[in-house]
Design brief:
The protein is an alpha/beta fold. It is 32% helix and 25% strand. The relative contact order is 0.16.
Length: 269
Amino acid sequence: MINQVQAPAIQVRGIEKSYPKLAVLRGVDFDVARGSIFALLGSNGAGKTTLVKILSTLLKPDAGGARVNGFDVANQAGDVRESISLTGQFAAVDELLSGRENLVLIARLRHLKSSGKIADDLLERFSLTDAATRKVSTYSGGMRRRLDIAMSLIGNPAVIFLDEPTTGLDPQARIEVWQAIKDLAGRGTTVLLTTQYLDEAEQLADRIAILHEGRIIVNGTLAELKQLIPAAKVEYVEKLPTLEDVFLALVGKSSAAPAAAPAQPLRSN
C-alpha cells in the first residue's frame, strides 16, 4: 500500500460527467504531485470548472473516481473537504469588513484559536499589512484576490483549487497573484490551477494538462509540450514553439482568442 505522503496529492481516473445533450467530461485521467502547481488549461466550456467541482466534492461524477490528499471524493467527502480549499473565479470577500476582519471571521468560523494572530500572519505573508484596517471596498482587484487566497489558506489545507484566479484582473494585479501562487507551492501547498491564459500556465505550472472536448489531450512539463512541435527555422535562427503554438496545434485555431493582447483569454466559437 502506498503511503499517503508519497502518493500524489490528486489522482483522477476516468472521470465522466454529462448534462442533457452535453457530455462535459469524457474520461479524464491525471495525477498531481504534492507541493507542485498543476495547470489545467482549456477554452471556455472545456469542463475545467466542472472537474474542480467534482474534486472539491461539490458535484458527483457519472463515472470514474478521484482521490484528493489520499481520500476518495465520493466516499470520504468530509475528509476531502478538511484537506482542501477552493477559490472561485470571483473574490469571495466581504467588502463592508476590513481585510483583517475578513480573516478573523473565517478563522473563528473554523473554530481556530488565536484568530487575530492567524490574520496578522496572513496579512504580512500576502503584503496586506498596511491595508489591514481598510474596508475591502477600497482594495484594488489584485489586493482583493490576494486576500481571497489568504482566506482560503486558513486552516492550512494541503490542496488548494484556484479556478481561473486572475480573470478580470489588470496586468499588475495578475503578477501580484502569480507571486502569491508561487509562494503557496514554495511552502508545500499543492495547487491545481485552471486557466484560459496561456502565459499564466507558462509562468506558474510545474506540469500543464490541456483539456479539450472533455478529455486530457496532452499532459507534461512546458519543455515536454514544446517538443511536440518541431522548432521553426527563420533565417537559420531556431525558434522554439511557445505554449500557444502547442495549444493551437492540438485543439485547433477555432479556440483562439482575437490576437490583440497576450493576456486575453481563449474563447471557443
